[in-house]
Amino acid sequence: MSPADRVVRVAVPKPLPQQFDYLAAERVPVPGARVRVKFGRQRLVGVCTSVDPADAHDDPAPLEAVLDDHNALGEELFALGQWLADYYHHPLGEVLATLLPAAARRGEPLTERTETVWRLTGSRPDLHRAARQQALLEHLLANGGTATPQALTDAGFSAAVQRSLADKGVVVREHRAAVAPKVAATEPALNLNPEQRQAVDAVAVSDGRFGVTLLEGVTGSGKTEVYLQLIDRVRRAGRQVLVLVPEIALTPQTLSRFVARFGQADTVHSGMTDGQRLDAWMRCRSGAASILIGTRSAVLTPFRNLGLIVVDEEHDGSFKQQDGLRYSARDVAVKRAQTLDIPLLLGSATPSLESLANAAAGRYRHLRLNERAGGARMPAFQLLDIRGHRLDDGISDRLGRIIRGHLDDGGQALVFLNRRGYAPALVCPGCGWQAMCRHCDMRMTVHHQPPALICHHCGHRQPPPNRCGGCGKSDLMAVGLGTQRTEAGLQRQFPDVPIYRIDRDSTRSQRRLEAQFAAIHSGEPAILVGTQMLAKGHHFPAVTLVAVINADSGFLSADFRAPERTAQLIIQVAGRAGRAERPGEVWIQTYQPDNPMLQSLIQDGYPGFAVRELANRHAAGLPPYRPMALIRAEGASADPVRALLQHLQEVMRTTVEDGGIEVLGPVSAPIARRADRVRFQLMVLADTRRPLHRALRAVTASPPRQSGVRWSVDVDPYDTF
Ligand code: ADP
Ligand code: ZN
Ligand code: ZN
Fold it and tell me: Taking a C-beta distance cutoff of 8 angstroms, is the pair 721, 669 a contact?
């Protein structure tokens, strides 16, 4: 080693707790810069974490290349990476890789792309005989004068029309830095009602300093308007805004409202290419983007000058990453807002019990919007006792008449059930045999469109059998209810009315989803059948009836969050009703009309339900009152999986001896075998965070290996499945 040589410590994207040292001969990277290293026989892109560490390796391998001359993530995001690794007990190298956009992870240079656009010239030849060309000219005039050829194709202008305008000199080709599409800001701010005004003032007067505000506003109360006006202030002050939303594909209206108000907003979502993501990332990092609207992973974007974070529908489960780095975007947002000393606004009609507990403990400011904005009334809730009633594909006679009544009055009906497919089981009435998945300990779901048995847990699919796998008889029966079955039943009962099914099977194509939404928005009488996809943020102004046809199943699930999730779903889906002039009605079919959870939800609304459920959690010693982690393990057979978890349990118990933690298990996971892997789990509960983290660090710092067994830690799990 010559004296000029420096040892560089590198976090590589591998599931290993340690970092690795390399020797830099000429160029020495700064911490946060990406480097290329040889790792075994692989070449990896890692991130430099320090230079000349005190305990440097004596004989490090040479560094292959330095890819950045600066900290690629920026100070704040780089520090956030360290925090994420510590809090979620995930290897730093993998965390840092997660923070980089895919293109950067592969080692591509961090430069802003340019794109080709059409730009209007001053030339205006007579186009009155070329209607499409005239329309394109007007489109460009209305949209800031430039657009990419792709954007114009998407807007319905063919390549030929575009070329014709170019031939006439009306537009020219130009290269420019890729930016978010810009349109004229057309939507003026609304006059806030007093509750909204109070909310805007409360967040704004905090002087731009850190503080979390929980905005609990009933569906349609104008939360979005509160966000928009706050965002406007922050933008005027020259700072950036991050808005997290659950699912962009399902909430195009929210997005279009932002664009209509501000003319421009960057987005990140799963439908984007790597190049588009990198562009948005770079624009946020450089400060060029003023608003970023995105799903979960957007919370990991670097910003130059972030001034506000908004998390819309903060209770939504999609904010929790379910594999790899299992972070909660909401909780990371809190951490970032604190570090950056900026306000955070959490909005929901049905806040998570975590956030409500934080508000009750005085950690968050709690504001409420109790009235619907724009004069619409809240729907009325009614229970429909179906004990002893015959159901026709899930619909009771009484509910059938109620639906008919709403359709006759010119309204739309929304029928909600949280299971897709035709029926959740295929059963032999002769011997009790059930069609099970070959790879999981779970029943196959019957699908009719197209006909198949599908495992909803591993995706295995097979043609429906025509005879029993036990006794060989052929009169197999589909048992239970899914959206396809309810759709078929409604079609039979209401042959004169269009029925739109909206679930993960029917909406694989965004185009079809949009076509369905467009048909629904025409306002003609119709029936909507669907799963929780219908509960997400969409406005269906003509819907006057919401029917929840199997509410009981949700309250009966074993997951400790099931009551919370079910209540949120019911309230959210109910919120789709009566958003316009016509008041809405909500009917809930139940075999358990006296179920105290259902009763409290109906009588006291979500706030009353939440108080009651929080008391249950407190009594049971569960989150949010005690922190929880789950350690999941899986392998080809049970014994080594169980043995590994027993070992981890032992390590954790000897690390925290004073009874500060409780380790339950190992028990079979609720789905004991999935995709041919046997699954077990340990549940770790603690009275405070400190012993929980101490226990988890003990097992992740020097992870035991058991060949063929994979295991992972989930801090603050959302699903205990
Ligand atoms: P939320 O986000 O709470 O569901 P929205 O912000 O979507 O509610 O508002 C519901 C409806 O009320 C929207 O159509 C919106 O334009 C309208 N609205 C919101 N605030 C006002 C206001 N101050 N005055 C009039 N209409 C409003
Ligand atoms: Zn399966
Ligand atoms: Zn049989």
Answer: yes
